[in-house]
Amino acid sequence: MTRIIGVYNADGSIFGELQFAINKLIGKTSCGLCDLTHGWNPFGKASWKHACSSSNVRIELLHRNELTSEQYEAAGDLPAVIIGNTGEWKKIMSADDILSFSGNASGFLTQIEILIGRA
Q1: Is the bond preceding 42 in cis, omega lying within 30 degrees of 0?
Q2: DSSP code, position 57
């Protein structure tokens, strides 16, 4: 079964989230996917939840430390969106691609739908 995974440029732990927040505040790091899905709200943005409920795209959201080595290799620079299954992964959206949808969760998911139609 093909999976679509959005990969955050952060580690998935309390410490990882805290470290990311501090580094974001001081301008050392960023994550367009984090900004799109939850911003400063740890429970997620209402706009993201609404876009997901209105879309046919089922995207898993993982932190960089939750990836397999094959997924991490395919993702490259983070954040990213990858598609595939066990052992075969391909990047379909780069950090710049994701950033271009800032504040437009519906457009982001629509673009993924278009891209997977070609994948």
Answers
A1: no
A2: -
Distance, CA of 110 to CA of 88 (rounded, Å): 23
Rounded to a whole number of angstroms, the CA Rg of the chain reads 14
DSSP state of 65: G
Where does residue 106 rank: exposed (0-12), middle (13-18), buried (19+ CB within 10 A)? middle
> Quick one: pLDDT at residue 43?
83
Mean pLDDT by 10 residues, the chain (119 residues): 92 72 73 88 89 95 94 96 91 96 95 84
Short-list 22, 42, 32, CA closest to 79 = 32
Please state, in angstroms and rounded to a whole number, the distance separating the CA atoms of residues 72 and 81. 11
CB atoms near residue 33 (< 10 Å)? 25
Q: What is the pLDDT of residues 90-118, one digit of tens each?
A: 999 999 999 999 999 999 999 999 999 86
Would strands 59-63 and 3-8 be described as parallel, antiparallel, or unpaired?
parallel
Lookup: tokens for 74 = 């395919």
